[in-house]
Amino acid sequence: MNQSAVTTPELSDGVRHALEVSLRGVEELLPQDEWVKKLVRSEATGQPLRIKLGLDPTAPDIHIGHTVVLNKMRQLQDLGHQVIFLIGDFTSLIGDPSGRNSTRPPLTKEQIQANAETYYRQASLVLDPARTEIRYNSEWSEPLGASGMIQLAAKYTVARMMERDDFHKRFTSGQSISVHEFLYPLMQGYDSVALKSDLELGGTDQKFNLLMGRHLQQEYGQEPQCVLTMPLLVGLDGVDKMSKSKHNYIGITEDANTMFAKVLSISDTLMWDWFTLLSFKSLAEIAALKAEVAGGRNPKDAKVMLAKEITTRFHSAAAADAAEQDFINRSKGGIPDEIPELSLSGAPLGIGALLKQANLAPSTSEANRLIEGGGVRVDGSAVSDKGLKLPAGTYVVQVGKRKFARVTLA
What we know:
Blueprint: H1 13-23, E1 28-30, H2 32-45, E2 50-55, H3 67-78, E3 82-87, H4 109-123, E4 132-136, H5 138-141, H6 145-153, H7 158-161, H8 165-172, H9 179-195, E5 199-203, H10 207-219, E6 226-230, H11 256-264, H12 268-278, H13 283-294, H14 299-314, H15 317-331, E7 341-344, E8 349-350, H16 351-357, H17 364-372, E9 376-378, E10 381-382, E11 389-390, E12 393-399, E13 403-409
Parallel strand pairs: 2-3, 2-5, 3-4, 5-6, 7-13
Antiparallel strand pairs: 1-6, 8-11, 9-10, 9-12, 12-13
């Protein structure tokens, strides 16, 4: 979509700026004219808009792909609006069918609670916790009861539910759809009614659920929310969306050195999308930097800036500086200043067993695969013999570019 801010003369500078911030990096903002009216009203009355992001705590950890929508929330939070971090403890019991070709297994209440605590702690690395309203949708979903659920279900038709892409595909291919899965978008939409949301954020895969919120708010006599979808972040491989199952992700709890090095591993092309979606630099700053690179500046300089910004956000400026130095040392073949130290017994010990016991490889067979690939070094020398046995002594063992251990073998 056209992301340029509206320059209609009757809009104030503040509203134009807020619209520009709203549109940065978005996939869709629907309907944009309604959002402008909300911004104008908010400025006139001094009443902040209510901006909702709902997340089901289906896993305990989040990666930086998840922070794309959190970054947008923070940008809107910094404009003075009220952001609501909604934890879907009730909807997690149903399981979100979005983008699924099979029924998502529901979680237990204990799993949900444990994941929710970790989720919010990690999200607070992006959002300002002092200005964030935290809600759980069980607060209004559980009191609905059976009669309330039936009344809610009466506000949407099966025909319209089946227009949803993933339901349609599963139905036409003969895959099962459980009745309870129809409840998920209804319950997510009801969250917007309960919270009187002005804007709901989500990934592109959530569009149906977000629009459900608009529909139900109208059914309940409320002004409908606007919907803002963000693109899914492409992962380290530059091909697929960031995902743990694709092994192309950066976890926000990963150590600073790993995080820094992973950001530097992305392509020069992908870097600019990451700047738009992950950086807090203004679009003008990013455009100026891009022009410098186009004019001959080394793109690695820009990538280092991005790596330091992201590492600082989830660790600290000092940790980002140390990670940069660590990366330089490794690129020169040097050994990091701080590496794990451990003592093992059983000399002479086979290299495969040593790698496993030192937690440098998950198994002896994986250790052998790493040796075959040339990824193992002892005291700086590549190991090619899987049958190597190390006598008693102290060794610096390296696997790949980022795993080291100082092993004292007795």
